[in-house]
Amino acid sequence: DAGVIQSPRHEVTEMGQEVTLRCKPISGHNSLFWYRQTMMRGLELLIYFNNNVPIDDSGMPEDRFSAKMPNASFSTLKIQPSEPRDSAVYFCASSFLWGGLGEKLFFGSGTQLSVL
Amino acid sequence: SQQGEEDPQALSIQEGENATMNCSYKTSINNLQWYRQNSGRGLVHLILIRSNEREKHSGRLRVTLDTSKKSSSLLITASRAADTASYFCATPPITQGGSEKLVFGKGTKLTVNP
Q1: CA–CA gap between residue B91 and residue B26 (Å, rounded)
Q2: Over the stretch B93-111, which tens digit does the pLDDT of each residue have?
Q3: What is the CA radius of gyration of chain B?
Q4: Cα distance from B40 to chain A (closest Cα, Å)?
Q5: Closest chain A CA to residue B46
């Protein structure tokens, strides 16, 4: 199993540009999570999907952020327009959830985003 | 939102010593999980302990859970330089929608000196 695959690994962009982060979850998993990690705020849950449906997006910081999961094997997190304060490591994680209980997550290697 | 808080924030020990990290949380949970993160990498799941369990072992790892005190501890015995990493506890808080999402603490940064 290849694990959770994220791309790109690093992204450097200028303020105002659109940024798209991609994630391929582990095959067979039914839930997908997007987290953001910074030194100041730690790991923050942005949004999670179950069976491709967004369940909780209360962590999405503002309307500039959007996430989609068009099918079970692909998700995107888009920031438009990007700002320097969006600089962080963005992680995607997947899991197989049943019974509404939190089970262990498998994380990707993350995307290091720098907005200049 | 409810969150696990690790203590201490940083810990530095010598190889061969034991390392103990603690986690406190605020509300009822179904389970508590510990993760490790090596520098520049994603988090890796270490161990999950359910709310009806008090202790769990996995190799050199020992996790305890005290639901009455809303706390957990992670013990790494006979530490090695390769154990140098940040360690996070994570809890799925029980909400009316279920308890699917994991909320992480800010972690304990462990340094094991050779």
Answers
A1: 10
A2: 766 555 567 888 889 999 9
A3: 14
A4: 8
A5: A104
